[in-house]
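[job 0412] stage=complex_fold ligand=iron/sulfur cluster status=START
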Amino acid sequence: MKKTAIVGSNCVSCGNCVNACPIGAVYIHKGITAVVTDKCIGCGKCEKACPAGIIEIVKREDMAI
Ligand code: SF4
Ligand code: SF4
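[job 0412] stage=complex_fold status=DONE, emitting structure tokens
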């Protein structure tokens, strides 16, 4: 079952998730943090690294389209 990370609100743009991701699937652009879903392997390292606790690992089919 494929999983992906999603970023919630109240991101403080600390960059921890970007640094934690082993494949460069998270990026911050103009203060907005986003995950490239097609690259993300759902490993959860960004979730553990986020001090704000706003990253969640979800099943891809549970994502709203
Ligand atoms: S779950 Fe893993 S692969 Fe996906 S964005 Fe987070 S650290 Fe990167
Ligand atoms: S680790 Fe959390 S608070 Fe920091 S940039 Fe990533 S999503 Fe935002």
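The mean pLDDT is 94.
[job 0412] exit 0
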